[in-house]
Each structure stands twice: as structure tokens, then as C-alpha cells.
Amino acid sequence: MSCNSKDIMEIPGYYYDSQVRRYFRIDPAHPRTCASESEPKIASVKSLKPRPNHTIDILHQREIGTFKHAFESSMVALSVKHLQCVKEFEFDCPHRPSQNVTFLKGGKNCVYVQEFCEISYSNFIKPRANFLFPSAREARFEYRLAGRLSIVDLCEFTKPVWKLVAVCSDSKTWNVTLSCAITGESTPLDSSKSPIWCCTSNDFTSHMVWGKKDCVVQGVLPVTGPFNRQRVEGEVRSIEFNKRGTLIYIGVHTGHVQLLDNRTRDIVFRKKVGNIGIDEVVLLYNEENLICEAFDGKLFNVDLRMMRPICHYYGHLHSPSHKVPFSLSESNDLLCATGTDNVTRLWSLSTGGNPMKLVQPPKKEHPCRSWLVSDGCKFLVYQYQREKCYIYGNGRVEGLNF
């Protein structure tokens, strides 16, 4: 406001501050002729804004958190609601008996399927390089006989070279073997006749760890020994690394989640989050949430800061005798799992509750497994049953060759 304004009465020896609307005495050592000289300096000072406590979290929410908006959430729910079979094909494996799917798990570069008949196991590997745009040529699977080796769990390495490693158990001797699922090369791992229930890997450290009764065993790729054994209370049924490989999240048969610090080789935290054993754990990108699957079929999201479930996914049916990994997509806010009734269910990853979609198998009497594949805002559900694979989408996925 100007000093000549009619609204301001000039008082000798004082100046008027328009911001606080008060008169102040002029210091003789620093004389000020009028209020307008000080106002530009006051106006040039930028107002201080509160800084976010977790900048990385906010950036991550900007990246994938758009689905919290009502419009984006409704679009994803609409796409899931209108899922339908957009393509189906048979395994390119002539002269083989029909078999039942016993294990399915996806990685960064492939989806691994194992089937079983009275004679032996069979393995199928589907490259994931062009998963969202499958053609007839890309639909072919690699097929080979696996003998008596039953896949317990598998993990994937992408550095320095891509390698898919499976933990196998001999159905007659129960000797545990590490097998390269691509080449079929196997390495004896443990002959103590103590079962192994799970395994996981970390590309940053090239470490692989597997869980046994009362301990976890860790080695460096190639896993030839010596192995580092760390005592853990309970049967280790599920295991997961963080990004840098410094922490290992362990689910045991008593329903506890334990945290192993690789730097100190100690269990730094132990908390009971379920009433029964934890069969599968998956750590989300923010490393603050852990998706857990219990023996009784309960699926829930555990907040690691509070160490308690914050949401549940209802309706899932799980068998404690068979490991059936679930899949998820944070970018699409989806969680996918197949139950013992062979029905595939899809939930909202962030809110949980009842399933948004039930995908019925073509033949209810045969075992079925499904896996969710996503890339950005696009997603497909691959469903495997006996000699066929069914692809479910919303009918508008570009690149599908019918």
C-alpha cells in the first residue's frame, strides 16, 4: 500500500505495516521513509510449507497411487468385472498322457508349470518376454520329463545371467536337490532327510536361502557350499528377502513372522500375526506391507510398522498340504489366488474384502492353477488345466492374435 494512500494516516516518527495493520516507531539508526519500502521485502519471502516425512513413499504413491482415486478404482473394477476368456491353446507336447497341474509360479522372465501323472513329473516353461501379446508361436512350452523330482518351491536369478532355480525333493529317497529348471542340471543340496518347504533369492547379493525345520540355510550362487545356517524357532514355511538382501522375512508353522538381519545374523523381531502357520509371504514394493497366506486359507495384509493385519481377503480356500503361490499386481491393485475348489479369485490389493471376480475353471473336476501377469495398466490372467492354457482379459487387450 502506498504512503500517499488516503486510508493511512501519516504520523511523524512512525511507519505503518500493512501486513499486520499496525504503526511502528522508526529507528533513528535505520530510518524508513514510508511503509512501501519494506513491503516488497516482506512479500519476497516465500512461505514455508510442511515437508513430507517420507518423500519416497509420496513419490511411490504418485506412481501407483492413482488407483486410490474413485475414477481409476472404478475403471479397474470394471475391467475385472468383465474378464472373459480371450484365448486358449494346448501345450505343444504330442504323445504324452494327460496330467494334473501340481505347481505353478511366475517370475520376471517366465511362468513355470509342473504337472504329474503316475509315471513322472513334467515341466513347462513359458517365456514372459511378450506375455501380454501372445501369438500362436509364442504359446509353445518347453517340455521335458522330470523323473521323480517334485518341485517344492522355486526362485529366479536375473544377474549376471538369467537362471531359474528349483528346490526339488525325491519322492522315494527325500533327498533335496537344486535343479536348474531350464537345462535340467541338478546339484545335490541336502541328504539329511529333513524336508525343505520354501526358498527365495536376491539379485542384489546373489544369495539364495531356503527354509527347514528350526533353521534357514543360505548360500551364494552358484550354490555349492559352504552354507550358512541360522537357527530359527519353528518350521520355516515361507521366506522373503528385502530389496538389498539385508533382511529376511520368515513365516513359521505357528503363525509367527520373524525378521532375520543378515548383517548381524540375529533374529531381531518375532510377532504372531496369524492363528495358524504362514505358508506364503510376499513383500510389497514399499517394504512396509507383507501379504501373508495361512494354512487355513486366510489371506491378509500385515503392516510391518504396526505388525498387525490391516485388511483381509475373504473367500480363499487353501490346502495346507499343497503350496499354491498367489500372484499380485501393485500397479493394478490386484491380488489373484486359486483355491482348493479350483476357482480363481481376484481382490483389491489395497482394500481387501470380498473378491471382485470369480473365474470358474472349464472343468471343475481337474486341478487348476492361475497366475496374474501385468505390465503397467495392462493385465491378464493365465489359467492352466491339464493340457490347456486359458487367457482371461477384458476383451480389449491390444496385441492378442485370435
TrEMBL record:
Q: Which UniProt keywords apply?
A: Repeat, WD repeat
What superkingdom does the record give? Answer: Eukaryota
Q: Provide the Gene Ontology terms for cellular component.
A: Cul4-RING E3 ubiquitin ligase complex
Q: Which InterPro entries match?
A: CUL4-DDB1_E3_ligase_receptor (IPR052254), WD40/YVTN_repeat-like_dom_sf (IPR015943), WD40_repeat_dom_sf (IPR036322)
Q: Does the keyword Nucleotidyltransferase apply?
A: no
Its recorded name reads: Uncharacterized protein
